[in-house]
Design a protein that fits this description.
The protein is an alpha+beta fold. The chain contains 4 helices and 12 strands, in the order H-E-E-E-H-E-E-E-E-E-E-E-H-E-E-H. Among the domains are: 44 residues, no CATH class; 112 residues, no CATH class. The N and C termini lie far apart (156 Å).
Length: 263
């Protein structure tokens, strides 16, 4: 009878152990599923910020941003706006919003500026001229009267992209930077008495400014000055057009002929 009682007790205890093991297994499954869901949620929140570098690539984290593609530094610049050159007249000035600072015009748009105590739509500011390296102790600057460019048109962001050609990076009227032939800072050159004569002679090789688009109906494109004689082949943004020089060579020849005839 004692043995039968022991066997009955062991049989009664076995299902209890099974229920405990089943309950612990179910608890483990719940914990694993919760941990997996938390891990997947963490991966979703961090997938758009920083990811570890893949094998075989450079060391360091790999940064990824949504909605931004790889582009040059110029495309990532925030556009700057300045006040337009014309004045507000008549009803436009009466109905314009008064202001004292640019921040008071932001509600009208990101391109709005406070110009003479009135909110106005700004225009794109021209790009700033990059810093130029001096040559033989003489600083260089972008020419105010540009000369014809013998080399092809080339975009740039800094002087280092134009140094092989002996040029510098200068802004143009289309608010972009191009490689251009540099002009010296005349105050740093020797023989100041000869500067006026040299600058006067250089005007025969300097381009005139392009006329307004209303008057410039049929501009003649070119690649070399020989295609434009007696005019010059002048670079204007990404293109080149035939333009007259600041001083006409034909007028100089006519004056010299008159003086020679008079004796």
């Amino acid at each position: 009878m004692g043995k039968k009682a022991e066997i009955g007790e062991t049989c009664a205890k076995r299902p209890i152990r099974r229920s405990k093991s089943a309950g612990s297994g179910l608890l483990r499954l719940i914990l694993i599923s919760l941990a997996g869901s938390a891990r997947s949620l963490q991966q979703r929140t961090n997938a758009n910020t920083v990811l570890p570098a893949a094998k075989g690539t450079t060391e360091g984290p790999l940064k990824i941003s949504i909605g931004k593609t790889a582009s040059s530094g110029s495309s990532n610049r925030v556009p700057e706006y300045v006040c337009p050159g014309n004045e507000l007249l008549g009803l436009a000035r009466i109905f314009s919003v008064p202001c004292e600072t640019d921040s008071e015009c932001v509600f009208l748009g990101a391109d709005q500026r406070c110009c003479k105590f009135r909110c106005r739509k700004g225009v794109l500011a021209p790009p700033r001229e990059p810093e130029h390296r001096a040559v033989l102790g003489v600083n260089r600057m972008c020419p105010k009267g540009p000369v014809p460019e013998l080399l092809p048109v080339k975009r740039c962001e800094a002087d280092i992209e134009c140094e092989e050609e002996g040029r510098i990076c200068c802004p143009d009227k289309d608010f972009k930077l191009y490689c251009r032939t540099a002009a010296p800072v005349w105050s740093q050159l020797p023989f100041p008495r000869a500067h006026a004569a040299i600058m006067s002679l250089m005007e025969y090789m300097q381009c005139q400014m392009a006329p307004p688009p209303v008057l410039d109906l049929f501009p003649q494109p070119c690649n070399r000055t020989i295609e434009c004689l007696p005019n010059l082949c002048c670079q204007e943004g990404p293109s080149k057009f035939c333009r007259p020089p600041r001083k006409s060579v034909l007028a100089l020849v006519a004056q010299a002929t008159q003086r020679f005839a008079r004796g």
